[in-house]
Amino acid sequence: MIAELGLRWILTLLFAAAGSFCLYRCARRPGFSGRAADALHAAMCVGMVTMAWPATMTFARMPQVVLFAAAAGWFAVTTALGFGHGRLPGAHHALMMAGMAWMAFVMPSAMAGMTRSATAMGGEHAGMDMGDAGMTMTGHAPAHVVVVAAVLAVVFLAAGIAWLARAIDHARTVARPGRREIGLATEGVMSLGMAVMAVAMI
């Protein structure tokens, strides 16, 4: 899904770090609701890593749609009932999960214009597997995909900046940043990563 190899690795490392932190926090939380939220965020990070790489971007596509649609419903319900860390964070989590479900669902049509092209380096040829060959965009995603992806990109970009700003503000008030500050930064990283993935679908 991500054409640039360097950007793929950057996103992979960021989502791997975010997912690892979510699993760490999940193991240390006392309540079921918080643990479920962290487990779902860790699963989202895994899904984002698979989407970043051409060889695995359609792996278990429909199970991902079902999982993340259910996760969006979970966050929507728990937020409405007053669980979690507030209305806006809960709504953001629900939107991220819904965005994941949507991305997995529309992946085939969004990637219809992406074709394989071999790089001009020695020993490589046009018959290479997509996971190893370079990719170029030769078409455009359907209009409805572009519109939704653009809206999601703007929303996730704004949310990511807001989360990072909160993380910085909190870090300034403590002697040493702890789990709370790292958690806020992790939320920002995940949101910004979602924005990048949404842009890649345009």
Write a concise keyword list for the protein shown above:
202 residues; mainly alpha; two-stranded antiparallel ribbon; 2 strands; 70% helix
Question: Topology as H/E string?
Answer: HHHHEEHH
Task: Give the biggest beta sheet.
Answer: 2 strands, antiparallel
- Oligomer category: single chain
The Rg value, from CA coordinates, equals 18 Å
Strand content: under 5%
> What's the number of helices?
6
Principal-axes shape call:
globular
| Low-pLDDT windows of residues | 115-138
Helix/strand/pairing category: mainly alpha
Mean pLDDT: 83
- Helix percentage: 55-70%
* Separation of the first and last Cα atoms: 11 Å
Q: Give, in spatial order, the strands making up the sheet with the most strands.
A: 1-2
Number of strand segments: 2
Please tell me about this protein's structure:
The protein is mainly alpha-helical and about 200 residues long. It contains six helices and two strands, in the order H-H-H-H-E-E-H-H. The protein has helices at about 5-30, 30-50, 60-80, 85-110, 145-170, 180-200; strands spanning about 115, 135. It is globular and about 50 Å long. The relative contact order is 0.14.
Brief write-up:
The chain is 70% helix and 4% strand. The chain is mainly α. Mean pLDDT is 83; it is low at 115-138.
Q: What is this structure's SSE topology?
A:
Layout: H1 5-28, H2 32-52, H3 61-80, H4 87-110, E1 114-117, E2 134-137, H5 143-172, H6 179-200
Antiparallel strand pairs: 1-2
